[in-house]
Amino acid sequence: MPRSPLPTSARFLPLPGLLLLCALATAATPQDAGLGWPERLLEELSRIDTDYPGEIGVFAKDLDSGLSISFRGEETWYLASGIKVPVAIAVLRGVERGEFTLDDRLRLEAYDYVDGAGETNRHPPGARLGVRFLLEQMVIHSDNSASDRLIRLVGIEAVNRVVEELAPGGFQPITPLADVRRHAYSQLHPAAFRLSGRDFLQLKQQRSDAARRATLARLLGVAPTELRPLSLGEAFEAYYATQLNSARLSAYGELLEALANGKALGAEGSAHLMGLMERVATGRKRIKAGLPTVAAFLHKTGTQRARFCDLGIVRTAGTDGDKRLIVAACTRGDSSLARSETALRLVGQAVWQSGALLPAPEELEVRR
């Protein structure tokens, strides 16, 4: 795909954490005293982007100083499962309003099933699963069926109200995860909007694009020749062009900032969601792999054909409160999971090498 123009914008840690971060930064960051962390980070992101076959986009913001950088962060990026954070906020707001509790159990219907990770699909139709369990599966394991069952609980309108309130104008419409597949496969045949959750499971089981096209034709009851002459990759690119389930990375940063500052949820709901995000099991080779071990990463990943994201809050514990840095990063244009995860790992590495996680110089002076 054509590469878009490169962008131009741009507390105390306890020992041994402070010493480790300082040592890492001293060893790895550019030794230009005239550059602050935003300039150093943008410079390194440009190098990562040049070496990556597709494109990267990154928005980062220090929540203490307010300093931020945007590397294609004002462009619209497909979020994939990144939309599950606003879903979780909508669910926890329902809990806060007393509409239901985390211990309430929801009946799983046949139309709730979507292909993907997690344990929800192991339960039969009619099973009753707790809201708490579904939230954990959705956030920690990126369970699509859990996500769609929770969306059915609160309504997709509530999810879209969350993003419009917390990041006005920054998000495109969010849809259920099953509709992602319907929109993508409808690029091959309009009858794909009739596909069921079980149909998606069958499609996912196919080992090649050719087998998936043949299965799609069979499920739709049409001849294979009636499918549009597009590859599955082209079909998904056409779907991405609709900009559904997409946002500016800077807008996603606004969403994360509201969550971190207790403006998206009350204290209990904020702690619950951020606790789940700290336990995320996906994306271990992405941004987190490039950060020092003293840094926690509260995040949500997104993964789809030629689209990969890692979006979260880096936190380092300090004697005067946490150092908090938002990092929202996505890739596009390269279908290789390995190359894309390497690029995101390098983004994480660039963040700490830039010095963004270190106390400000005046704080270090006071520390001495």
Automatic annotation (TrEMBL):
Coiled coil: none annotated. It comes from the Bacteria. Keywords: Signal. It comes from Pseudomonas indica. InterPro entries: Beta-lactam/transpept-like, Beta-lactam_cat, Beta-lactam_class-A. It catalyses: a beta-lactam + H2O = a substituted beta-amino acid. It is an enzyme of class 3 (hydrolase). Belongs to the class-A beta-lactamase family. GO terms for molecular function: beta-lactamase activity. This is beta-lactamase. Its EC number is 3.5.2.6. GO terms for biological process: beta-lactam antibiotic catabolic process; response to antibiotic. Gene3D superfamilies: DD-peptidase/beta-lactamase superfamily. Residues 1-27 form the signal peptide. Residues 57-329 form the Beta-lactamase class A catalytic domain. It holds the Pfam family Beta-lactamase2. The lineage of its organism: Bacteria, Pseudomonadati, Pseudomonadota, Gammaproteobacteria, Pseudomonadales.
